[in-house]
Write a structure and sequence with these properties.
Helix 3 packs antiparallel against helix 12. About 85% of the residues lie in helices and about 0% in strands. The chain is built from 21 helices and no strands. It binds tryptophan (TRP). The site of tryptophan has 16 residues, from helix 2, helix 3, helix 12 and helix 17.
Length: about 450
């Protein structure tokens, strides 16, 4: 029985001998699930789903998770474990210097996404604290307007970034792994409890119907399709090297396909359960119109309103909900910051603490812009959260499918016999199916990003 760390050191070569590794398999999976599960599942999924016709979106989202999500995750795992470096270094190693711009795009995506993600996470912290201290607001629309931008938003954004920076400073095993091991199971059980409670509401069935009954023409709508693809990448933390970075801390014994499957199903499961909480609540309280209007604030307007209307029980449930959301947000933010920090460690040979403070401060400052204006937040999400991610996913599919030397070997390391047989299928998908689908989506999302930028320039 070889000692995993020794094997790794031998393979890694001298300059990365002290690269950290995950202590346990569960630690890796929980950190990756922690990255995947976050505001994307509970804030973004329900509102994107309600924009694009509910159940049709859900069906496409499941299909795309399986057909392109899992292959892309495997591609990131393979490149990360082969490269044993953060995105920039790993991509250079696997594809040569021509591919460096993609590495830089990954780091830029991490910086931009975290800077607005943190603003939304800040709202979450505020709602959790306020609910504990004084309950939910009587007029949720006015309250959201008052706290979502400006100084109140900036203060909570700072608090959230401080927590994220703190955990990343401590490192992979003691910081990221330990935090995820406790926080992720907690989040899951809270959400499950909430879904049971939501089922008891009057009018819940109407919410389920909207959520779960597909309509044929929306299934064929390119915008709905692209939204589902974009949401799948955002939710699975794909397309910007987060999973790649985690895999760089992984030993050769890990069964990549099994882990990718577990992570994807866990992420889908949480999004799906979040839908089982959010849609019945929205329907039970007749909030459909409000949610349709203010997509960004949907969750932060509809749910507090619901909790407020339900008295003491609502307050308890609401506190739990926002705590769970906060937990999901922080484990995701960790992975976004880790992409930037690990790149700085590898490229500039900085100490982890120094890198975390520098990167975290830059991101904190950039986040002040989306914290002052929700239109800016929307543009950043359209550009970095959608367009960059689909482009980054297309890039990694091509890199691993066509350029990387012997990707099959990397995928086979640690694979079970059953998956070993599926490796050619995965590679076929990465070479042909995924790029074909993604070209379409990239085109659609480029249009979306441009339109968002133009609207910002012309509209306000
Ligand atoms: N997946 C996370 C969520 O659903 C957000 C996130 C974390 C992310 N890391 C990422 C999104 C990397 C895209 C890329 O909330």
């Amino acid at each position: 029985m070889p000692e995993p760390i020794e094997v790794d050191v031998a393979r890694r070569g001298a300059d990365s001998i002290d690269r950290e590794v995950f202590g346990t398999r569960a630690g890796f999976i929980l950190a990756a699930v922690g990255s995947a599960v976050g505001l994307g599942n509970m804030w973004r999924f329900p509102y994107v789903a309600s924009e694009g016709g509910g159940a049709a979106f859900v069906v496409l989202y499941i299909g795309l998770t399986l057909v392109i999500g899992i292959p892309i995750m495997l591609a990131e795992f393979a490149a990360g474990r082969r490269g044993r470096l953060s995105p920039i270094g790993a991509i250079r190693k696997v594809g040569g210097s021509k591919w460096l711009p993609m590495g830089f795009m990954y780091v830029l995506s991490g910086i931009l996404i975290l800077s607005y993600y943190s603003v939304i996470a800040g709202w979450t912290i505020r709602y959790a604290i306020e609910a504990m201290l004084s309950g939910f607001p009587a007029d949720p629309v006015a309250h959201f307007d008052a706290i979502s931008t400006g100084l109140p938003a900036i203060v909570y954004h700072l608090a959230f970034m401080a927590a994220t920076i703190g955990i990343v400073m401590v490192g992979v095993e003691k910081g990221i792994e330990k935090a995820s091991m406790v926080l992720m199971p907690a989040l899951f059980f809270i959400l499950l409890g909430l879904a049971c409670w939501a089922a008891t509401l009057d009018g819940a069935s109407e919410g389920y119907a909207f959520y779960l009954r597909p309509s044929m023409d929306e299934l064929l709508d390119l915008d709905v399709f692209s939204n589902a693809a974009g949401q799948a990448f955002f939710s699975l933390s794909l397309g910007m090297g987060a999973m790649l970075t985690f895999a760089s801390y992984l030993s050769k014994h890990e069964n990549l396909a099994r882990e990718a499957t577990i992570i994807s199903f866990a992420d889908f499961g949480v999004a799906f359960i979040a839908g089982l909480v959010v849609f019945p609540v929205i329907a039970a309280l007749g909030l459909q119109d409000q949610v349709g209007e203010s997509a960004m604030g949907a969750l932060f307007i509809s749910l507090p309103g619901a909790f407020e209307a339900m008295g003491t029980a609502g307050r308890v449930v609401g506190i739990l909900f926002f705590l769970a959301l906060m937990v999901g947000a922080i484990t995701s933010a960790i992975s976004l910051l880790e992409v930037v920090v690990s790149s700085m460690i590898d490229e500039f040979k900085l100490a982890r603490k120094t890198a975390a403070i520098i990167a975290g401060s830059v991101i904190t400052v950039i986040g002040i812009f989306p914290a002052t204006n929700l239109d800016i937040l929307g543009v950043m999400d359209a550009v970095a959260g959608e367009f960059f991610l689909v482009l980054g996913a297309l890039g990694i599919a091509i890199l691993v499918g066509w350029v990387m030397e012997n990707p099959a070997e990397e995928l086979l390391d640690g694979a079970s016999p059953a998956f070993s047989k599926a490796v050619p299928v995965v590679l076929f998908f990465l070479r042909w199916v995924v790029p074909a689908i993604l070209l379409l989506v990239v085109w659609n999302k480029a249009g979306g990003a441009l339109a968002a930028i133009q609207a910002l320039g012309g509209g306000s």
